[in-house]
Design goal:
heterodimer, A: about 110 residues, mainly beta, six-stranded mixed sheet, 11 strands, about 60% strand, B: about 110 residues, four-stranded antiparallel sheet, globular
Chain lengths: ~110, ~110
């Protein structure tokens, strides 16, 4: 089976930097996704890591360490519109399944 | 416009009355999937399909059926709905399972 953990809630200040962690235990790891989901809306794709290291995409970066079963999403220059849930998901190549963590609800305050 | 379309968006029904939630994508994606989202539990995969006539169980398949007769459509069937299937359902698609998924807008089901 798979187990994915991420904090339930985080609060940060507008303009600041926040790091959202995700740890996982899985067999047949084939990549890790981060999705953003605003309240009442569908998830939207943010990033994908399959190899170790940092992937940067504008204000958002995602890091992966396969040996540690660990990833983080880094959001810089926070804006109010970044208030959303951030979902970590692991792709398992054994069955082509995608398993999501419970999501981290980020609240950005002025 | 590339999209995943789910219908209905909202449905209130009663226990035992068969229902189908349709899902259609216009991106020629091979991989399609159904999820349910419940407070505190996140998104959980119900069923997925890697291609036409190929479907597999996800983490929570009990009480659900799917079919993939055409590449673009992947309906979710609840033969005998029960109150514990009250949830927010999302359909998603991608070219392959290891690629980013496009999600539909969701279907909120209430089973009384």
């Amino acid at each position: 089976g798979q187990n994915i953990d991420q904090p339930t809630e985080m609060t940060a200040t507008e303009g600041a930097i926040v790091q959202i962690n995700c740890t996982y235990q899985t067999s047949g790891f084939n990549g890790l996704f981060w999705y953003q989901q605003h309240a009442g809306e569908a998830p939207t794709f943010l990033s994908y890591n399959v190899l170790d290291g940092l992937e940067e995409k504008g204000r958002f970066s995602s890091f992966l360490s396969r040996s540690k079963g660990y990833s983080y999403l880094l959001l810089k220059e926070l804006q109010m519109k970044d208030s959303a849930s951030y979902l970590c998901a692991v792709h398992n190549n054994a069955g082509n399944m995608l398993t999501f963590g419970g999501g981290t609800r980020l609240m950005v305050k002025p | 416009e590339a999209q995943v379309t789910q219908n209905p968006r909202y449905l209130i029904t009663v226990t035992g009355k068969k229902l189908t939630v349709t899902c259609s994508q216009n991106m020629n994606h091979e991989y399609m999937s159904w999820y349910r989202q419940d407070p505190g539990l996140g998104l959980r995969q119900i069923y997925y399909s890697m291609n036409v006539e190929v479907t597999d169980k996800g983490d929570v398949p009990e009480g659900y059926k799917v079919s993939r007769k055409e590449k673009r459509n992947f309906p979710l069937i609840l033969e005998s709905p029960s109150p514990n299937q009250t949830s927010l359902y999302f359909c998603a698609s991608s070219y392959q399972g290891y690629q980013p998924q496009h999600f539909g807008d969701g279907t909120r089901l209430s089973i009384l």
